[in-house]
Structures are given as C-alpha cells and as structure tokens.
Amino acid sequence: MYQEKSSDNGSSIRHQLRRIIFGTDTKLGRYFDITLMVCIILSVALVFLDTVASIHEQYGEIIGILEWGFTIIFTLEYLLRLYCSAHPVRYARSFYGVVDLLSVMPSYLALFFPGASFTLVIRILRLFRIFRVLKLLRYLSEGNVLLRAMLQSGRKVFIFFFSVSLIVMVLSAIMYVVEGPENGFTSIPKSIYWTIVTITTVGYGDITPGTNLGQAIAALTMLLGYSIIAIPTGILTAEISQEISRSKDLRRCSNCLKNGHENDALFCDHCGGELEREL
Amino acid sequence: MYQEKSSDNGSSIRHQLRRIIFGTDTKLGRYFDITLMVCIILSVALVFLDTVASIHEQYGEIIGILEWGFTIIFTLEYLLRLYCSAHPVRYARSFYGVVDLLSVMPSYLALFFPGASFTLVIRILRLFRIFRVLKLLRYLSEGNVLLRAMLQSGRKVFIFFFSVSLIVMVLSAIMYVVEGPENGFTSIPKSIYWTIVTITTVGYGDITPGTNLGQAIAALTMLLGYSIIAIPTGILTAEISQEISRSKDLRRCSNCLKNGHENDALFCDHCGGELEREL
Amino acid sequence: MYQEKSSDNGSSIRHQLRRIIFGTDTKLGRYFDITLMVCIILSVALVFLDTVASIHEQYGEIIGILEWGFTIIFTLEYLLRLYCSAHPVRYARSFYGVVDLLSVMPSYLALFFPGASFTLVIRILRLFRIFRVLKLLRYLSEGNVLLRAMLQSGRKVFIFFFSVSLIVMVLSAIMYVVEGPENGFTSIPKSIYWTIVTITTVGYGDITPGTNLGQAIAALTMLLGYSIIAIPTGILTAEISQEISRSKDLRRCSNCLKNGHENDALFCDHCGGELEREL
Amino acid sequence: MYQEKSSDNGSSIRHQLRRIIFGTDTKLGRYFDITLMVCIILSVALVFLDTVASIHEQYGEIIGILEWGFTIIFTLEYLLRLYCSAHPVRYARSFYGVVDLLSVMPSYLALFFPGASFTLVIRILRLFRIFRVLKLLRYLSEGNVLLRAMLQSGRKVFIFFFSVSLIVMVLSAIMYVVEGPENGFTSIPKSIYWTIVTITTVGYGDITPGTNLGQAIAALTMLLGYSIIAIPTGILTAEISQEISRSKDLRRCSNCLKNGHENDALFCDHCGGELEREL
C-alpha cells in the first residue's frame, strides 16, 4: 500500500481516512463503500416496513432500536467525512453533504417533538429518512451517456412539455364545460387531473366521461396522447443513437489510430493491437 | 437606439411602438413580452381557480375584479396592436389577431347575458377566456425541428390513423355483437369508445368485457394496441434522426467549409475557426 | 379522351366502363371512386347510429330505407364490376371481390330470416355490413413503406410475441396460485386475461391483486411490460429508418445520376435538373 | 440416410436415437420435434382449461386421464434423452434437463399428497406442470439479434431501472405522507405498489389519490412516467439499429467480397454470384 511521507501524524491519518472514505481505489475503500450501501438499503427497507401496521405492532420496538443503530452509523460517517475532508465547509455545502445531514437529522429532531399529538410532523420527519436512498446516487457514475443524451435533448423536451401543457389546459376547460360537476368534473383543476390521467394513458377510471359528447372528446384525447407519446421517444432515441456512435468513435487504437471499435472489443480489428479498457 | 428620420411624428411613435410590441430585439420589447406572458399565465390561473367551488365562495369577488383588470389590459394590448401594426386589417384577420380578440370578447359578452338562468352560456363564455393561453404560442418559435419532422411524417401518420380507424370500427362491431347491451356495450358508438380506451392502453374500466369470448377479443385488442403503438414512434424517430443530422450538416465552418459540427460546438474541429451561434 | 378502335360495340362499352370503374386515370373514374367512398362512409355511419336505442326509435324507418338504397347501389356496383371485368371469375375470387359480395349479402340474407326471434342472427348479419369499410382499403396505396417495414421485421416480431406468450403463461399460473378465486382469479384463462391487461399497461381494474405477494408480483409484471414495450418499437424504428434511407436512395437524378435526394425535392441539388415526382 | 459403421449394436441405436431426439437435420428428428411441440402445447392447454370450474366438473375425469397420458409421454422422452445422451449427467444438470424433469415431477408428487386437505400444495404442484411450456424455448434459436441487443444495452438498462427505483421510493414516501391510510395508502409498500401502477401507466384505479395535493403529485408522477418510458425505448432502438446494420455487414459475397446485402437478397448485387443463405 502506498505510504506518504508526512511530518504531521494526524494529517497522515486524515489522509489515509480520506482515501478510504472518499476514494474507491483501495481495498478498504471498496469495503467501506459496500458496507455503507448495504446499511443504506437496509435502513430504507426498515422505514418502509415500519409503516405496515401489522409489522409495526409486532416488531416496532426492534425496528426502533435498529433504526437508532443506523442513525448512529450515519452520524459517525458524516462526522468522519467532515473531519477528513480536505475542504470540510465545501463538503458540508455540497449536494452529498446536505443529503448526508438530512439522512440523520429526522431521528434527532423526532426527540424534540415527542407526544402522540404530533403524528403528522413525525410522519413527515420519518419521510425524510428515506432521503438516505439518495446517498446511493454517489455510486451511479455510469449514467453519463444517458444523462448527456437527456441534457442534449432538454430544449426539445421543454418545448414538447410546453405544447402538451397548452393542449391539456384547453382540453380540460372543454371537458369541464361539456361534462360539468354532475359527472365528477367539479372544477378545472380536477379536470386537468383527469386530462393528464387520460393523455398519459394511465386511466384510473375514478373520473370518467358520462355524456356522449364527453366520451367522443375523451376518445380524441386518448388518440392524441397515443400519438404524442411518440415525440419524446423519438427525440431521445435520436440523441442516444448519436451518443452511442460518438462514444464508439472515441475507442481509437493507440497503435494504428483506427477508431470505431465496439464497446466490448479487446483488440484493434485492423492491426491486432490491444485496446484500452473503456471506463 | 436606432432612430428613423420621419416627417410625421405620429408615424414615428407608431413605428417605435411597433418595435416594442411586435419585435423582440429591443430591451423594452422584451420587457413588454415578459409582462404580457406573466399576465396571460396569471389570468388563466384565475379562470381555473374560480371554478373550484370553495375558492369561488371565498375569493369570488376579488377574482372578478382582477379578471376585469386583465380584460382591460388585454383590450388595450389589442387596440395598440391594431393601431401600430403596418397592416391592421391583415393583423386582425391573422391567427394571433383572432386569438387576441377571442381572449377579451367573453368578458364583454357576459355583460349582455347576465341573470342566473343562462349558466351554461356563461360557462361556455368563461371557457373561451382560456384561449388566452394560445397567446403564448407567439413565444414558441423553437419547435422548428419537431414541427418539420412531424409535417414530414404527416402522410405516413395519416395512413396510420386511417388503418387504426378501420381496425377500431371492425373490433367495435364485433365486441357489440359479442358482449351486447347487458355488459355495457349499449351501442356501436359506445363500443367504439371502449375500443379506443382499450387500444390506446388507457383502460378506465368503466366498460369491461363480461363474457369469456369478449375477454379473449379484448386481450387480442390490447396486444394489437401494444404493437401498433410502435408504428408512430418508429416513423417519428426516423424523421427526427434525419432532421437532427440535417441541421448538423448546416453547421458549416465559414473558414475551411468542413460541416457536421455538434450543436453546442463553438469552434471548428478541423481548423479551429470560430463557428456562428445557431439560432 | 382516348378512344379505342373496336368492332364489337358492347366490348367497347365494357372497356370504357372498366376504365371508369377500375381505373383512376380518367376524370369520370375519379368521380366514380369519390362517390363510392362517400357512399361507403355514409352507409357504415348509418349502421353504427342505428344501434343507438334512441336514434333507432326515432329514425329507424328512414335508416332502414336509406340502408336499402345503399344496398342497391353496392349491388349495382358489384354487378357492373363483374360485367366489365376482363376476368370476372378472377375478380369474384379476389379479396376485393369477396369483400364487395360480403358488403351486400347481409341485407338480402336478412330477408330470409325475419321474425323477432332471430335477432342475434340478424345482428351478426348486420355486423358483416361493416365489411364495407374494407372497401376503402382499395384507396390505401400509400402505405407501402410502412407495410414493407412491418413485413421486414415480421420474423423478429413473431419471436417477440412468442416470448411474451411464454412470460404471460408463466405469470398467469403464478398469479392464479398466489391470488386464487377469492380475489377474482377464478381460473387460469381469467388469469391470462388479467396478465395481458396488466402487461400491456391497459389496467382496467376489474380484477386487481388483493394479497401483498400478489401486488408485488403485479408490480414486477408492470415493470416487465414497461420495458418490453420498448422491443417492438425498437425493431420497427430500425426498419423504418432503413426503409426511409432506402427510398431516398431511389430518388436518383436522371441527368447526373446523383442519388439521395429529399422526398420533397423538385430539382437535383447537384446539376439543377428536374427530378421525377415520386409516386 | 447417412449410416455409421459401428461394432457395438446398442451404441449404434443410441447414436441413431441421439440424432432423432437431439438433432433437427433428419426427417425423423423433425417429426419427433413437431410431435413433442404439439404435446407440450396440448398438455399446457389442458392444465389451463382444468382450472375453469365448469370445465373441471364436466370433463375433469377425461382431462385427468389425458394428463397422465402426457406425463407418461414426457417421462419416456426424459428417460430416452438420459439414455441416448453422450453425457447423461451433463444433460441432467443442464437447464433443459431440469425443465424436462420439472415437467413430469408434479404429477408423480401429487400421488404422495392425496386427500382433499392439501389443496394448496396440489394447486402449487399443478402450477409447476406449466413449466412444460419452457420446453418450447428449445425451438427459439432465432432470437439472437434481439438477445444480443438486449445484453449489449443491459448495463444502461440496469442504471435506468436503478434510477427509476430511486424515483419510485421517494414518490411513494411522499404520497404516503400526503394521502395517508384514509385514502388507501395504508403503508409505504402499498404506496410503492400504487406508484408503480401509476408510473408504468397501468392505472388500475383500485387506489387513487383523494386529496388535491395528492392528485397534483399523481399528475406529476404520470408525466414523469410518460417521459421516462422513452428512455429504454431509445436505448434499445439504438442498439437494434446497430445490430441490424452489423448483421447486414456480415452478408458478404464470397465471389467479389462486396458486403452489405439485404437479409432477403439471394444474389450479390455487384457480380451476380449466389449468396449463402443466412441461418
């Protein structure tokens, strides 16, 4: 293991800890990450199961104890990250720093709001604990092609959603007038809810058109939704195709400079030279 | 600021106003547009909220006053556009001219149809006020690639919808015979409504097949809808791919004439010359 | 108008009629086609409206008379086609010959099955009248690119549907065991119906899982359906892209032989020579 | 028919049987495969129909006898495969070997668990008989392009599902807090079920948001689901496009070495030499 020459002993430990906690290039660093990932998934699973009434009655106390165990683990992790970070303030203000803090705060705050009367507040505090799941985002560095394709098409998608909003608003107002409160369209906001349920082809059926004219307009709305579903798919497919062919262009043989190799190719198909592994 | 030599003073003011109201290349012109956009969105939001019974009871009067405020603003805007347009009649007959008129008419018409007995008429008049939202279309000049791709594929999409109509009609008639009025298929138009709800995968569940044969045909209908959803997506994706590669062809370096640059490229990747910003 | 030298007068009239009825290259031929198309659409609309109870009560008799009018028109058309066709037997056996016969048969057959007791038989006979709509297929010659893309991908789509069938059958059996008759899964065929309703994302809600395990399996089924919806779209998009670029290859300038022109291009972009109109 | 010289007679019969049972290149081998395929489909259809109460009452005994007939056929097939396989143990441990065993086991196991009290056990045993359908997988060797495209995009699809899981969990927790048990969101696992039903646009309607805020969040969830449905489609389409153009590259004329021929081309379009049939 690489050992740095260091006059200050504490600084050396901090540096070692930094490599383990923030890095992924040492064995201990990878163990640390995997342990943390398991803890995050288990703690979120606990929060979810605790909301099931029958499980809460039987195992509520055990879950409460485990819950505090995870809170202490995540608190220690947060303090360690603060201690060994090169720029503690920048870390605390970063997205992951805030997420790490949010994932332990609710449990401590719940201590100051006890009593059975504050159920809603506690329920909301409990909710925030599931933001722990966002800590997993740290391990999601592979999504670059997807993300770039989405950002690339962001402007077109925005225009698409703007147009859909116009259509939804006009259709909602028409349906409100045609159907009226007697068929469940009690207000235009409720009518907007129905239009979105219909145009996205979800179709709960909690509000359905009752009049003949309303059903005809609903049928048109569905056919419209059916065809505009094609637009974002088309935009994104075109962008992803380009991203893939671009990333293929980047796989260039360092020997004969030929590019365009498959993502899983190991050797250059022109000169037989070994290709670098893609990250 | 660019100042035109003009013998007639009124004509000069008209010209200035025209640049502010119709143009977007001056600071005042942009402020005017943004103010108008905010007014449109606020007035449409008011119309929508006014239909919620509880809000109408509590804030109905304030909404009514604000509503008249917006009507006066849009009336002034309409008159100003008529006054300073180079061709007032052509503007009045244009799409946006009609939309601008439609957005103020309902409020004035409602004055001539008072009384509680004309609720439906008033409800329809109120409806028309949301056409104000169409005024936002003016700011939607970015959708060219999408629009061209859609027009390009218009013929294929028409054939697709014609074929779907044939399938829907045949399936509706079969389901009407198989299920009959006792399972909610009271007429073929109602059966068409069911078929569209099913083939677009909306699936409200207000009418569902009750017989075994009907459920088998319904299952086939769904699988059919599931596979034909692929057709418009395929058509549009192919067209958008072509539009994107075509618009890329147009990004040509004026120095070395190499084309095919990325949309977000700033410099030519061949000679390093600066590229023109795409609009 | 082009006039053929002919010794037999009847044969000349037959030839003339053939050009009008089967052809689309004369003015009368186009008028004949358009008139027929309007008749087909009107007659199908009548059949559909007649099934609405309130319309049948009020306008039943008028519809019945109009119905017989259309039947006579289509009978005349069928006899004329038989008379002036170059190969009457081949026409009678062709797809359109059978459709033309099927579109008039039900009305005549209904004469031999009167009485109120044969309502179902008559309803089924009436159903067949909507096959008139298939007569419109004759005018649908534009769908070549789409059809070729679909046939091209037929083998892949068959494998796709075979795989989906396997998945549906296994999931149906599992859900039948997990949920059982008490939650509406009364038999495996009913369970297959539910699986198809779910996997195609239709989701009527007439049968929904009641147990926790069933809901978990249902959620997996939905995610599965959500991702496999991508497969036929992907296959078809790839094929349509190829068909479009192939049809573009076929637009070759007859002057300088350069190909790859846009579908709507009128002149060669290389030598300026006029391009032939694509059919 | 090809005849091998063989000193051992039993080994020769085994070899002959192996060609018939495992191979598809002889006439008898194809007959064997087709007979087996029909048996599999018929036996699975029987299992499915037997679960319909009315059919079970009337035809239960005949189905039971036929069921035993199929069990004996599949047992004989399994023993024959074991006998004539070159590596019996390897076959028994292979995927198809296990599937072949699983398809006969349930019927024999049911003999040891008689009595009316073990209905659930018998129902589960009956379930396993439908795994016979997996025997059809043997005949599904055409799906290579699809499978390779799916594996190629496996990593991107995994990241996609991981991101969707994060979104689903956060949305479920929010909806649980907003709606609460009084609107059917009794626990977070139930809330996850609702979120998946909504985001995949299935929309049963068994659980629907009741509060205004809940309906607004539901509408956002649907629009989200509507746009992320585009992502796997885009990934897969891009990969399939590449697989198709790659498989076309492989159709190379052995005479003049020109490649890029259509899948259904029989002759080289450059030199006219006959092309090899693609498998």
Helix and strand layout, with pairings?
Four copies of one chain form a homotetramer.
Chain A: H1 9-22, H2 27-50, H3 53-84, H4 88-93, H5 95-102, H6 105-112, H7 119-128, H8 144-152, H9 154-179, H10 188-199, H11 212-228, H12 230-249
Beta-strand residue fraction of chain A: under 5%
pLDDT averaged residue by residue of chain A: 74
Largest interface: A-B, 48 and 51 residues
Reading the helices and strands of chain A in chain order gives HHHHHHHHHHHH
Q: Structural class of the helices, strands and pairings of chain A?
A: mainly alpha
* Assembly of the depicted chains: homotetramer
Q: From the alpha carbons, calculate the radius of gyration of chain A and give it in angstroms.
A: 27 Å
**Based on DSSP secondary structure assignment, what is the total number of beta strands of chain A?**
0
Note poorly predicted spans of chain A: 1-7, 115-120
Q: In which range does the helix fraction of chain A lie?
A: 55-70%
In short, what is this structure?
Chains A, B, C, D: It is a multi-pass membrane protein. By secondary structure, the first copy, chain A, is mainly α.
